[in-house]
Design a protein that fits this description.
Blueprint: H1 3-14, H2 20-36, H3 39-66, H4 76-84, H5 88-96, E1 99-100, E2 103-104, H6 109-127
Antiparallel strand pairs: 1-2
Helix pairs in contact: 1-2, 1-3, 4-5
Length: 132
């Protein structure tokens, strides 16, 4: 296996991670590829990018499809503030796959679990609500 293929494999394992360490390693890999990559490396990088853009598009479509009819009744700002400790726009960006600072963000697996738990928790609270 060529060195650039090892670098691409490592890069692929970091896709979707946005912690500081992962971002630093990804930047180092990109720098290495820019300095050492040949035409074969560029083609494989391009294929990797296109593959991941397709995956992101599919993730966004899946999320939107799953919450399509309920989207209007979901308390997005409440979920963002109380379950993610983030702004409503932060959650909207991830649900809708908006491009922010040149990068498309979606919910990662951990965030999807938090979102699902938030919906279940809110459903329980609403289900137990009664006026007397």
């Amino acid at each position: 296996m060529k060195e650039f293929e090892k670098k691409l494999q490592e890069f692929q394992t970091l896709i979707g991670k946005d912690d500081a360490k992962s971002e630093r390693i990804k930047a180092q890999i990109v720098e290495w590829l820019e300095q050492n990559g040949d035409d074969d490396a560029r083609e494989k990088c391009k294929a990797l990018v296109l593959q991941n853009l397709k995956r992101i598009d599919e993730d966004i479509a899946t999320i939107r499809q799953q919450i399509a009819t309920e989207y209007d009744i979901l308390p997005i700002s409440y979920i963002a503030k109380h379950y993610f400790k983030k702004s409503a726009s932060w959650l909207h960006q991830r649900i809708n796959g908006y491009c922010v600072r040149g990068k498309v963000y979606t919910l990662n697996e951990e965030q999807k679990q938090i979102f699902n738990n938030a919906c279940k928790d809110i459903a329980k609270k609403i289900g137990s609500l009664q006026l007397t």
